[in-house]
Amino acid sequence: MLYVTPQSKNDETRYLPAIYLTAHQLLSSCTNSYIFKNLNLTMKNLTLTLEESLVFKVLLLAGYDQSDSELEKVEERQYDMRRMLAAATSANATRYYFTILELQLKQVRLSVLTSKKLSSELKSIKRKMGLTLVRFEHASVNLEPFVRQHPFETSRFLLDCITKHYKEELKSQAMKILGSTDFLGNPSGFLADVSEGVSELVHEGSVGGLVWNVTHGMANSTAKVTGSLSDAVGHVTMDDKHEEHRQKLRLMQTAHSTDHIMAGLKGLGLGLYGGLTSIVSQTYTGATQEGLPGFISGFAKGMVGTVTKPAIGLLDLASSTSLAVRDSSKK
């Protein structure tokens, strides 16, 4: 979920610690204050990957599945805690002075992976939170360091300042995050690949580097767009079993480009088979579960699936082929 972003072999800092902290505290006769000449915290670039089902499971563990009355009790306890914190930040609270306070975290690579199927408990939490996640991968968010000179504040006030600073930094990077979304084809990643290829061409005279980077960017964008389209059309089929089987095929481990091609061909075969049998299977299922109304609705769903399932199979094949080209173009 959270780890240090892998560094290239040419990066001289790759052997340094993930977190580097230096602090110079001065002796003080005051009992409720600490004096620091400086405090510097430096962190390596981090990668944060949020998987939708895991996020809601953490919220479930934190108690967000409670009833409204229970949540009101939790809010009352939180209010009492806030009153205690307010009292702690009074004139007698411990304060910290820094000649210079500096926190450095240059870049965070954000990814959000949405889940196709959630349990009823997790769906309930999702409704309560009103949280809708959009899938994107490896959005590089560049953060300005947090620097303060001569602050003399409580720890609570300093933490609030740090939190506000990084929230503002994330807001300023909103367009970069939007440019990494799958349904747009990750234009930010494509531009990064092109700029890297142009840089190799200018500085190293490598035409091959330009070609490979542009190929990688185009294939990656195509894979994301076709994948998003196939997922969108997949909801139209209204066939949970078919969609579940399709998602299992997409989640298969693919270590090589040929694995992507095989997964795409299997997806195409599943789509063609589903299209041929859609009317019979959907009509039979509807009739056995709901009688005559189910027979009619099942027949209608089957008619839709006859067209959409083969189309989804073709999109899955196109997406897998693009992934194969993307992976094979990596240097």
Shape: flat
Overall number of structural domains: 2
Helix amount: 55-70%
Whole-number radius of gyration? 27 Å
Secondary-structure element string: EEEEHHEEHEEEHHHHHHH
Mean pLDDT: 80
Q: How does the major sheet shape up? A: 5 strands, mixed
Protein name: Vacuolar protein sorting-associated protein 13D
Q: Secondary structure elements and their pairing?
A:
Blueprint: E1 2-4, E2 19-26, E3 33-43, E4 46-51, H1 52-61, H2 68-88, E5 95-105, E6 107-113, H3 120-129, E7 136-142, E8 146-149, E9 152-154, H4 155-172, H5 174-178, H6 187-204, H7 207-236, H8 240-250, H9 257-290, H10 292-328
Parallel strand pairs: 3-5, 4-6
Antiparallel strand pairs: 1-4, 2-3, 5-8, 5-9, 6-7
Helix pairs in contact: 1-3, 6-7, 7-10, 8-9, 9-10
Protein name: Vacuolar protein sorting-associated protein 13D
InterPro entries: VPS13 (IPR026847)
Organism: Portunus trituberculatus
